[in-house]
Amino acid sequence: MIKLHDKYFKPFISAKEIDDVIQRLVIEIAEDVGDETPVFVGILNGSFMVVSDFVKKYPKPCEVTFIKLASYEGVKSTEDIQRLIGLTQDLTGRTVIILEDIIDSGNTLAEVHRIFENEKVKSLKIATLFYKPEAYKKDYKLHYVGIEIPNKFIVGFGLDYDGLGRNLPEIYQIKETQHMTNLVLFGPPGAGKGTQADFLKEKYHLVHISTGDVFRYNIKNETALGMLAKSYMDKGELVPDQVTIDMLNAEVEKNTDANGFIFDGFPRTNAQAEALEKLMDSKDSQINAMIALEVDDEILVERLLSRGKTSGRADDADESIIRNRIAEYYDKTAILKDFYSSQNKYFGVDGVGSIDEITVRLSAVIDNL
Ligand code: IMP
Ligand code: MG
User: Fold this and answer.
1) For this structure, is 345 an active site residue?
2) Which of 190, 259, 269, 360 is buried deepest, with most CB atoms within 10 A?
């Protein structure tokens, strides 16, 4: 992964792949051109690398020239194309092949056609290394296309993001979600997980996703996923992991500009941890840490019993029920502790002390990720 200005990019097309594609374009074009001496016209700035590699491979005599246009601002194509350097030689009667690094909206190409409108060239053909079909809004024919790519911003091999990245020999693609801190938060009943989650959410601008809340929300609002989940619950069956993951996915999708997520109540099994990993991966992200609040059993029992006195929650009133809940927690989370430990992502945090003391300990872990 690389960072240019404020954005992250991931490797997308290797230098070798680019080289193979250019070689293929050279063969196709050389065959079509035959014995003519073509004039290759590069569109600056982006095309300097593709033109250079292309003409080095071109097997027969050819001429090379450039025009310089500018249309992009940041990561968006603009309608307004500036003609910075136009044609500087007479191309009457010549076989002209435009060499573009990338064709996106086609606005630049429209300007190229305007430039050649009054030139009496013998033929004008368009070759481009990269082409984004979903972004293309024109109907000029593209005679030679190297690689069709999705409509996502790329850098490298001549292409830049606000001036940076042109020198990279391979292509990088912008990351769907920018850098996130994603936490899986654990704690036995009575550990103060809810209090700490609220604090972390504020301090790090994270979105707190509690599976319990997500379920209740989907069922209450009768979303398709909620109804599906309910149909299993009504039969007394466990809701399949995929349904839960689909709900979490919807929550993540709603918040793609978040700094990250706190997952609470999920995963509970190895299979779920793997599914969550896949979900994060599909968002170009990952789980950075499992943080577990560690509190001695006796202290938990004491805390819950005293909470039971004021809250009136039945499951907080009976000591043997409390002990069972705690035992069940350790039973269930042991597997996940192993799962995340094996990736060096498990962090146990001492959950005994004042709320402030514990938040300081949690922050120390997160600040170090
Ligand atoms: P168009 O005018 O929208 O077809 O865009 C063509 C020009 O925009 C290219 O010559 C590039 O300079 C720039 N461009 C389009 N897409 C990208 C991209 O993904 N990364 C970097 N530059 C791009
Ligand atoms: Mg260009």
Assistant:
1) no
2) 190
Pairing of strands 171-174, 7-13: antiparallel
Catalytic member of 57, 125, 152, 307: 307
- 104 ligand 1 Cβ < 6 A: yes
Q: CATH for 2-174, among 3.30.420.200, 3.40.50.2020, 1.20.120.790, 3.40.630.30?
A: 3.40.50.2020
The answer to whether residue 313 is catalytic is yes
Half-sphere exposure of 119 (CA within 13 A, CB side): 20
Confirm whether pTM is higher than 0.70. Answer: no
Read off φ and ψ for residue 200, nearest 5 degrees: -65, -40
Return per-residue pLDDT of the chain as tens, 369 residues: 899 998 989 999 999 999 999 999 999 999 999 999 999 999 999 999 999 999 999 999 999 999 999 876 777 777 778 888 889 899 999 999 999 999 999 999 999 999 999 899 999 999 999 999 999 999 999 999 999 999 999 999 999 999 999 999 999 999 877 778 999 999 998 898 999 999 999 999 999 999 989 999 999 999 999 999 999 989 988 889 999 999 999 999 898 778 999 999 899 889 999 999 999 988 888 999 999 999 999 999 998 898 888 877 777 778 998 899 899 888 888 899 999 999 999 999 999 999 999 999 999 999 998
Q: What is the dihedral of CA 156, 159, 165, 169, to 10 degrees?
A: 30
Look at the block and give the residue holding tokens 């097309």: 13
Name the fold adopted by 181-367.
Answer: Rossmann fold (3.40.50)
Q: 145 in the Ramachandran plot: left (φ > 0), alpha (ψ -120 to 50) or beta?
A: beta
Catalytic status, residue 325: yes
Question: Is 72 a pocket residue for ligand 1 (Cβ < 6 Å)?
Answer: yes
